[in-house]
Specification:
This protein is α/β, with parallel strands linked by helices. It contains eleven helices and 15 strands. It starts with a strand and ends with a helix.
């Protein structure tokens, strides 16, 4: 089948472009959504389909399949269209069946009536799907001008994936701890607990990834603390940014073993995960946002013993695959990080469980599940149409 894959350019943010050529070595790194778009393209192609990826690129690959300008999405005839996150892009696509793989956590960015242009929605986890169905904050479309009433029959679950082969050729570095998620989701708690971890495990050292300083600077530049009282979620982010910045200043002495690495390429983050002994992720979000966590899945496949919390969907997804503690119990969380760094038997046992879980969640599995759900929906739609036709014929004079 010819499949249009849509990645709306506004999702690229400061990145600006997304290229299929050499994307793993791009020093700008990749978000989870960007990786989803590229890996779905590659896996669908590997399954024998003809995918066309529409977005902004500096290196378009035109032909039977490849990468095409976003503006051309309405000029190609396709069998199926799949949009990552943004259903509005489907309004202009020439395809009889349209899918939105919804990884984001509200619809305020979508225009009212977006659901009328989608035949099937896919959610990354059952807890994420439950939020779609029950959380009033997720039903606001177009920044408050309309409400979205989800039809549960048009929704399904398709988990995210990982690449097992990318993590095998590296050696663990003793004491290596990594933090690889957005800084607003718990880095401040890691900064709080790190001195105690370092005292208990003198050889421990922490490497922090993500565009940290830009995130801090943007929050400080955009917000005056005197005006934040009415913007509670923004206020919370600002407070976390200020705390992290001050904590890093106080822990800047090399004896604390902290390195801020900023954004790095996919190839490097895979190596960093593979070399790490522990992913320390004390996740606590300001709004419900962790619907699957590709970061934790990568730690599972890399055997980077994830020590995490039960925030959002994380506890339900990784209950049997990682060391999970309740949000807010930082003493227990800290103790498990220390245990993972000092007890090889504990770490190995956790890693085997995590690795076994991750092997069931490859990107090929994601692509196959998505296509299976599409085929199921097509059958239901076809059966409904045929039944309607028969009923109409029987009831006609």
């Amino acid at each position: 089948m010819r499949i249009a894959l849509l990645y709306d350019p506004w999702l690229l943010s400061a990145r600006g472009t997304l290229d299929l050529d050499g994307y793993r070595d791009d020093p700008r790194g990749m978000t989870g959504s960007e990786q989803c778009a590229v890996r779905l393209y590659e896996e669908l192609r590997g399954m024998g389909h003809v995918p066309l990826l529409f977005t902004n690129s500096s290196n378009y690959i035109k032909g039977m399949d490849g990468m095409l300008p976003w503006e051309e999405r309405g000029t190609w005839d396709c069998d199926i269209a799949i949009s990552i996150n943004c259903p509005d892009g489907l309004r202009d696509v020439r395809a009889p069946f349209k899918v939105c793989y919804a990884l984001l956590n509200d619809w305020t960015f979508a225009k009212v009536g977006f659901e009328q242009h989608v035949d099937l929605f896919a959610s990354p986890s059952a807890p994420h799907l439950e939020q779609v169905m029950t959380n009033p904050a997720w039903r606001i479309a177009e920044a408050g001008s309309g409400r979205y009433e989800p039809d549960s029959s048009k929704w399904c679950v398709v988990p995210l994936g990982c690449d097992p082969e990318r993590y095998e050729a590296f050696t663990k570095v003793p004491g290596r701890v990594v933090y690889c998620s957005s800084p607003d989701r718990g880095l401040h708690w890691l900064m709080q607990e790190w001195p105690a971890i370092k005292r208990a495990v003198p050889h421990a050292h922490l490497r922090i990834f993500y565009r940290l300083q830009k995130w801090i600077d943007d929050l400080k530049r955009a917000q005056d603390p005197q005006t934040l009282e009415v913007f509670h979620s923004v206020k919370a982010l600002w407070e976390r940014a200020v705390y992290i910045e001050e904590a890093l200043r106080r822990l800047s002495d090399p004896k604390w073993g902290i390195t801020v690495c900023d954004s790095v390429s996919r190839a490097q983050i895979e190596r960093e995960m593979a070399e790490a002994e522990v992913l320390a992720y004390p996740c606590q979000t300001t709004t419900w946002s962790e619907g699957f966590s590709a970061t934790i899945l990568e730690a599972c496949i890399a055997r980077a013993c994830p020590v995490i919390t039960d925030c959002d969907a994380i506890g339900a997804i990784y209950a049997d695959a990682a060391s999970v503690t309740p949000v807010g119990n930082w003493e227990e969380w800290r103790g498990k990080v220390i245990l993972a760094l000092t007890d090889k038997s504990f770490r190995d046992t956790q890693n085997e469980r995590a690795h076994e879980f991750a092997l069931r969640h490859t990107w090929r599995n994601t692509a196959e599940q998505l296509m299976a759900r599409i085929q199921e929906r097509l059958w239901i739609t076809w059966k409904h149409i045929k039944t309607s036709e028969i009923t109409a014929r029987l009831s006609s004079p």
